[in-house]
Amino acid sequence: MNTNTREGCISEVTIREIEAKSILRKHRKIDSWFISHYGMNLYRGCLHNCVYCDGRSETYHVDGEFGENVAVKINAIEVLRHELNPKGKRAPLKRSFIMMGGGVGDSYQPVEKKYELTRKTLRLLYEHKFPVHILTKSTLVERDLDILRKINEQNRAIVSFSFSSVDDGISSIFEPGVPSPSERLRTLAFFKKEGIACGMFLLPVIPFLTDTSELMEETVKQARNVGVDFTIFGGMTLKEGRQSDYFFDVLKKRYPELLAEYRNIYGGNGWGQATGEYYNSINSKFNAIAEKYEMPKRIPPALYTDILWENDLVIVILEHIDYLLKLEGKPSPFGYAAYSISKLKEPLSTMKRELRKLRGVGKTTENIIIEILETGRSSYYEKLLLG
Ligand code: SF4
Fold it and tell me: Is the CB of 55 under 6 A from ligand 1?
């Protein structure tokens, strides 16, 4: 099979069909970025071949040449049908969005046209009445409007797109296998017109290229113009090994003048993090821009309050508060409180008088938890979310 990239080169790709033992990947604690307990990878490897993709890192054990080889979980629907079947399970699956995307392969990469595993999965999730959150870089998601509309009417669907910026030229170098940012924005506008909630993951911004105030502002502005419901922001990690080697090869060819600056911020820690100073600087730029455009920096509660179990709702809101305070450079005990609550089996509403016994829960946190339990909202959080 051949694949065309936006830069015009053609590379050989290999598709391998494999049998999966399991499909749903369960998070121990609800993931407050995506409002999800479960994720999945129907494909391993990604023909979109983004230069910065961390799925390329050895950490994720994707076999073969990332960007050219894809393993297709050919029995995915059968396995998933079994996993979603409530019969024979000790505990039912937890209520939350099922996350499709991220990980080690885009659910709408080119092989999806042939195998339709994502489409079949959506049908199954509809049958089982699960809300769905899709994160992709491919406009192929428009094909599934019919089923996403049904899921949205029954529960809720969110369609999110990831961007490193809205600059089509930079994207063609670092995201060679996907539709341009302009096309992705058009697809977001298309889903918004259909009444489906949409998000932008401005993730990752590429250091010294798409992390400038001007370009970040233009990106958030265009997100606002198409009506996205939130923008989630993050910087780039570069893990040593395949991910970092591949990225630096491209950088050397296209932007050799930036190499020294990259070496300064990526110091070679195991998780590929840049320096704290660098992340602080881009976070505060993003924070100011998001506030200027009144852009929610996390998924707004109106999209999930009615979906989650009470403890999960509290965890998500506390983690969002934690993130928003840290974005402003302020200390926060809320993340620790959320972690303590994630260990509980009993509903928080049955232990309202004992909340202070939980690690990390002081007077302020206790008040916030009680307000959430009684009203489903936190006024403190809502103020923080928009700045
Ligand atoms: S679309 Fe996502 S999974 Fe695919 S290469 Fe790009 S970043 Fe990686």
Answer: yes
Residue 271 has pLDDT above 90, yes or no: no
Does residue 138's CB lie within 6 angstroms of at least one atom of ligand 1? no
Does ligand 1 have an atom closer than 6 angstroms to the CB of 299? no
Q: Is the pLDDT of residue 86 over 90?
A: no
319 Cβ below 6 A of ligand 1: no
Pairing assessment for the beta strands 36-40 and 97-101 based on DSSP bridges: parallel
Q: Which of 254, 96, 252, 273 is nearest to 170 (CA)?
A: 254
The alpha carbon of 365 and the centre of ligand 1 are apart by a number of angstroms equal to 38
- Model confidence, pTM: 0.94
Q: Looking at residue 60, what is its pLDDT?
A: 84
The values of phi and psi at residue 151, to 5°, are -60, -40
pLDDT, tens digit, 9 for 90 and up, residues 181-200: 999 999 999 999 999 999 99
